Amino acid sequence: MKLKLTIKDTEKLKDSLQLISSARKFVVLKFTPKELCIISINDQVINQEPQIWIKFPADSLFESIEVQSLRENTISMELNIDLLLQTLKNFKKANSEGLNIRLQRTDTSGQQGVNSKNGRTASLALFYSNMNINSNTLNHTFRIPVKILRENQNLLQEPYHSQNSLIMRLPREFVTMFKRLEKFKKASGNDIVTIRASRTGNGFLGFILQEENKFRVTISWNNRLEVHKSTNNEPESVRETLKNINSSQMESSEEESVDEVQLTLKLNHWQQASKIVGGCEIVILYINDNECSFHCLFDDTGEVEILYFVNGIRVIT
User: Fold this and answer.
1) Which of 188, 254, 261, 298 is the most exposed place for a label (fewest CB within 10 A)?
2) Are residue 145 and residue 182 in the same domain, yes or no?
3) Among candidate residues 101, 134, 155, the one where a domain is terminated
4) Number of domains in the chain
5) How far is CA 166 from the centre of its chain?
6) Based on the number of CB atoms within 10 Å of its own CB, is 246 exposed (0-12), middle (13-18) or buried (19 or more)?
7) Which domain holds residue 254?
8) What is the DSSP string of 191-203?
9) Is the pTM here over 0.85, yes or no?
């Protein structure tokens, strides 16, 4: 197993990580020769909590990349996201030219990594150099403990929708909807929301909050929405979705027609997406009666894709 990298765009990596750093303490980094995926999941209840996937094409993020493993040249590891973020911030302050990364199975003394209870027997070493005010070269090395994942590879599969969905391209101003819902959540203490989406008229997206015998409130987006119907449940990139929308290839056959959906989920799970939605340039919402997901492009380059996926819940009445 071998991992050897040189990063050419640490800012894009750092800024993307900051969008998801509050979700969970640990994330999974999945390296292949063509792509880096950063995955935030709870593998104990993977279908009951939101999943976050960030995807970087290797050629846009790395100057050089060498990934070798017996598992189709794929290396997955779990690490503390705050430690990685802090190292990237330190690198920025140092004003260095290149950040190098190596996967190390032994420490600097040559001893094997500590086989601790949490299984972190390796480290991700990040190192760089810079010049001080006396023109002396300073070398910096940071080692982040990691857990190499082998048996859990089957969990690291990008989620997909179980049925055809409505697809909505959300405007940048939509982030204000999260603020409106947060105010109501604090006032009522309610953590269940029903989302109703429709492609009729100018498109509709409403949030129904209620408590039996107490209140029923609908908060809706009042401006026009661009709404389409999907024809494929398999995962596709945001770029593919935009291409299909622009070429009018999103419409389903009549027998598969979806004009309105209704999804019930935990309000907190929806609200956790606010930082991602507010921080991305392009945001597309997929929604059906079972699940919903945000498919986002971080900026105009389209090089960084972020997926936020939430399963609905069944309300027993």
Assistant:
1) 254
2) no
3) 155
4) 2
5) 20
6) exposed
7) 166-311
8) -EEEEEEE-STT-
9) yes
